[in-house]
Amino acid sequence: MIAYGTDVDKPPTAPRNLSARGRKLWRDVLQRYSLRVDELVLLEQACRTLDDLDRLSDELRDAELVVPGSMKQPTAHPLLLEARGLRTVFAAHLRQLGLPDADGPVGAAQPTQQATAARARWDKVAAERTASIIADADRAAADVARMTGGQA
Fold it and tell me: What is the per-residue pLDDT across 16-27, written as a single tens digit (0 to 9) for each?
């Protein structure tokens, strides 16, 4: 289990053993967004996935991208496939966090406080609509009872 600090004014420090790039992602996200504990776990996974991608890139830097397959046929280096899978996982972590894509508009993801306020507004609208529907149903039932002489 990951233990994070309880000081709400200060973002939690980066988990141990992250590379410089993983720590930078951690800091950049937490400077802009307030995350719940479950979101911090996802952020850590994204940072570690980014680190793994960097290590694979280092391995592939001087490697042949096309290698002999099991039947000596030309085939893509297996680490290329692994890197593609890690990029997919990294993107999934970011999507789960609701963070904007690098090319996306600034502010595409809302900090938790803003998201909570928006949710409260929508919950209020939903409650008002529900109350209105119930009132309409009560009036309709009363109208039916009047028209049938109370024998509905």
Answer: 999 999 999 999
Backbone φ/ψ region at 150: left (φ over 0), alpha (ψ -120 to 50), beta: left
Pick from 47, 42, 38: nearest CA to 18: 47
CA-based angle 31:37:42, to the nearest 5? 80
One-letter identity of residue 79: L
pLDDT digits (tens, 9 = 90+) for 5-57: 445 567 899 999 999 999 999 999 999 888 899 999 999 999 999 999 999 99
59 secondary structure, DSSP code: H
Question: pTM to 2 decimals?
Answer: 0.60
The domain spans of the chain are 1-109, 110-152
Containing 50, the helix (H) or strand (E) segment is helix 37-61
110 Cβ partners below 8 Å, 6+ apart? 98, 118
